[in-house]
Amino acid sequence: MTIKEHIQELRNILSEHNYNYYVLDNPTISDYEFDTMLKELQSLEAEYPEFYDPNSPSQRVGGEITKSFETIPHDYRMYSLDNSYSTEDLKDWENRIKKLIDGAIQYTCELKYDGASISLTYENGILIRALTRGDGVQGDNVTANVKTIKSVPLKLKGDFPLKFDIRGEIVLPFAGFNKMNEERIEIGEEPYRNPRNTASGSLKLQDSAEVAKRPLDCLLYHLIGTNIDVTSQFGSLEKARQWGFKVPKAAKLVNSLDEVFEFINYWDIHRHNLPYETDGVVIKVNNLAQQEELGYTAKSPRWAIAYKFKAEQVSTKLNSISYQVGRTGAITPVANLEPVELAGTIVKRASLHNADQIEKLDIRVGDEVFVEKGGEIIPKIIAVDLNKRLPDSHVTNFISHCPECNTELVRQEGEAQHYCPNYNGCKPQIIGRIQHFISRKAMDIEGLGGETVALLVNAGLINNYSDLYELTKEEVIPLERMAEKSADNLVEGIKESISIPFERVLYALGIRYVGETVAKKLARHYKSIEAIAKATEEDLMNVDEIGIKIAASVQEFFKSDENIKIIERLRLFGVQLEISADLLKGQTDKLKGEIIVISGVFETVSRDELKKLIEDNGGKVSSSISSKTSFIVAGDNMGPSKKQKAEQLNIPLINENEFLHKIK
Ligand code: AMP
Ligand code: ZN
Description:
This protein has 25 helices and 21 strands. Strands 12, 13, 14, 15, 16 and 17 form a six-stranded antiparallel beta sheet that branches. Strands 2-11-10-3-9 form a five-stranded mixed beta sheet. A four-stranded antiparallel beta sheet has the order 5-4-7-8. The site of adenosine monophosphate has 11 residues, from β3.
């Protein structure tokens, strides 16, 4: 087999497994096997760039940057749907359409997925474009981002038409949404409010590699084009499925409105078990010839109608508001409710997010409030029932002092959250920071759990994470539920953690906004903690993806004498505070001192690879051209304004081959 054939074979196998995993939800190999094959493909593609294929499964990781999204007209308009809320509404709809068409009517019933609508264009079985709905006439080109969504086929199978559009919904399943939020809370960011907005926000991210990390899914429901060999909606769903699209199995073909009602009643209950949010059912006339006869109004098709589920809502009493202090000192108000059943679970608490939210709802203790629950972890308070407000109720004043340490709270300009600034003396902050330090993605200390950390802090045995390394077995044995063996494991686990690589140590320090990815970038760029501590804000912002918010937070962290002392102690105990020699292999100084801008699209290397090559050879990547820029690595389609600026400042342009030659 030639190299080219081998690469092609790997691509085919990986595409098939990708399909099994993300479209069919039925993986047939382990993640490990998949990753091994993917790595092999990636290294072959890097070695033989002449076999580049934009639709290779390796391209799912993204890397393309979209500065501003181009607006493009839809070939076929994207309509919205008329809504209905009752069986009466649906009967009226059927009566209206019966006057316009002859013959029996069958309906396709589908779930109405709550996400961001998307229109995909395929030509010769290849995804060539993805547009958002926009105003229905034209939408934004989000192709680079959509290509990273694993359930979107990049290449189709079977007997697909030469050219067609397919429409669907990009959704963020609850599990992924909740996980993303846990990670955000970990680094001190505010959690996202709901999956739908997060899904549509994701499509507009500039860095497709960021989109690739989000567990988005794409559910399809509508084929559109001129040469498609189908005669019914239900048939077209089946076809789309055969070509490799993810078309939910819930769709049902029915013969009467009564059966439509059955479908609605069934899903009104069972939708709560689905992995993603649905807000109703869409009923479509099944026969495409009948659809054509019915046509469209100015806004929506006459042949379809949405039935909206009533949101599950209950009202209950707000007993009190309590305030929680997070690891970063952020204060979150929590509503304590009179327990009430909602969508099958008992709800006792709801998040109130921040002071703005309290003010917006004008929520007061004693109020009767409406609570709604989606698949998010914490239910939401939608509104106050003002009719039931007690005459002697008081406006809620947000607390002014920390409920844990009584320090006066601060609220930075432009921020919604209040903070307790007592970084070194506020218990939940101290405990939370150490819990973060030992967590799996950070120092991953075996034998030590979050509850034990709290016990250790409360017993006065530790006060910051560097104290962990001085703990002895004798000190921990007297703790609750601590046997000799577990004390051994604990001390041993802590000792072993000194081999955790620098980038994870950096993440473990718990610098606000420094998540895993940012920690990696900083570690790779600066190579040691001293270099990071010394970097100016401007310098930090030159690192890829580091903005003012992160730069300021890093500076703030290293300004504290207390933090410096803790880091010195970590050093003493042998914790890794610089990048290990292994990672420095393959690195040179060839580009030392050079500030390099990457612009345009490249044939043989991805932008990410270019960036890595520059950094590995000692250069710096900058996102904007200035008089300090050494040169620009320019690909195709370099932006006209960048070109102009480069000319003005007389900055040399080199192409990718020249660049690769330079570092050879
Ligand atoms: P609305 O935004 O309320 O006008 O509802 C119309 C939108 O529902 C469409 O633009 C789609 O994005 C979305 N939708 C979700 N599921 C379906 C489905 N099964 N069939 C048609 N549209 C759907
Ligand atoms: Zn406090």
